[in-house]
Amino acid sequence: MNHSKSSSTPLPVSSSITQWLPGDYLFPLRLVLGWTYFSAFWRRLILENKLDPEGAGYIGEKFNHFLPNAFLIRPVIEFFVSNPELLLWKLWVFTIVEGIVGLLLMLGLMTRWMGLATSMLAFGILLGAGWLGTTCLDEWQIGVLGVSGGLVFAFAGGGRLSLDHRLISKYNCGGEKRRPWINRLFGSGMALPKSWVIIPGLAMLGLTLLTNQVFHNGVWGKLHNKSVKPIVEVSDARISGENLRFTAFRVEGADVYGAFLISVRLVDPATENAVVNWTATDLVKLSAESIQNSYVAKIKPGVNSLILPLGAKAEIQLKNKSLQTLPKQDYTLELEDISGAVWTAPVTFPTNP
Fold it and tell me: Residue 205 and residue 45: Cα distance in Å, rounded?
């Protein structure tokens, strides 16, 4: 009877073990979350060189894709994509930081601080790229889960399956060997006031709902996904002599697929007829001087069309001698995509050329 009673009673767990249990339970998440950030370094510098501005797949162009609909940090993104040299330095620093943070998180070294760093990295990605994702709101989900996942490790630490635990065991075992600063750096599972958990948790929920609404109307209103189809903003269209100039800015659509212009037309609104037309054959022959790009992502002639990557903005100049003899009136500029989509802008013919 005594033997049965003692076997059914759970063994007490020492406080030294209890403080590490939250990190133990989160071990799989720590490895996966750490790899998602370390892999950014791995694929950009080890598997391929994606930090070469002249190479295919340059990460700076992908950074440029964030620009049109970034939340709060758009001026920062625009500054960097307008200054390619500074952008390259920024990408090197960001990539190395991602690699270090991800590796240390997987190893469980300074796990609390690496969790906080992960949240900060994910927060920047969320604000910049949270609107991207053609199927399942991809970047928004990655961003909010990265912020919350990092926050969890800032609270829980690394558990017993971490380098933190080894360092604590070696240097913080009491007596003369005790090192308080070791505990601050590598401690795990320390008791926290409820408010320290509740307030960040509610803030994280608020950030999730806010960004879901801003990027996708995911809380109320009509859902939208700005990555589904390309949209080009056309502005500042004007005629001077035999030149037509306008600014094109690709602001929506999939980041891995461009807009492909096959026609640019000057249309008389009264008759809805094109008075001047530049076909795909004309557009693919445009010189570099005819396209003044503003950012790292560049509008450029392709084999069969004029290609407009996501986030690219440029002033485009088209020539046609018949522009000099057109009646001086208002016209409509039409840009036609290979998909059949048409984007328009008014053109005011100058009264005093």
Answer: 35
